[in-house]
Design a protein that fits this description.
One of its GO terms (biological process) is translation. By secondary structure, the protein is mainly alpha-helical. It contains seven helices and two strands. The radius of gyration is 25 Å and the shape is elongated.
Length: about 130
């Protein structure tokens, strides 16, 4: 199982698909990498030679991937929070950032529902003396 950018890429997949296992490399970028490295995108990962792997690795090192890219994204979000941009405030509040509605849906960002119900008069009168103590 070859390692590129510290990630084990699968042996049995075509190299253009296997490269997408690396964070920051999608289908388009994988094809561009292979074109630059002059490697056939239809070849299986297990059939790559050492020279082909080295040329792919050399091209990948020019791009921000894995830890470096994660750090860049994290720093960008921290900058938005620090300058109190709208998107930064939404990040810090744990709400959707890109304009989605929150009245319904948005459960992935907001978390589990917390039901806030009305209090009857009887419950309010019994709760009030208990709150004063």
């Amino acid at each position: 199982m070859p390692r590129l950018s510290g990630i084990d890429i699968p042996n049995e997949k075509r190299i253009d698909v296997a490269l997408t296992y690396i964070y920051g490399i999608g289908e388009k970028v994988a094809k561009d990498i292979l074109k630059q490295a002059k490697v056939d995108p239809h070849i299986r990962t297990k059939n790559l030679t050492g020279e082909e792997l080295k040329s792919i690795q050399a091209v990948i090192e020019t791009l921000p991937t894995e830890g470096e890219l994660r750090k860049m994204v994290r720093d960008n979000i921290e900058t938005l929070k620090r300058i109190q941009a709208y998107r930064g405030i939404r990040h810090s509040m744990g709400l959707p950032v890109r304009g989605q509605r929150t009245r319904t849906n948005a459960r992935t960002r907001k978390g589990k529902r917390k039901t806030i119900g009305a209090v009857s008069k009887e419950a309010a009168t019994t709760a009030a003396p208990a709150a004063k103590k």
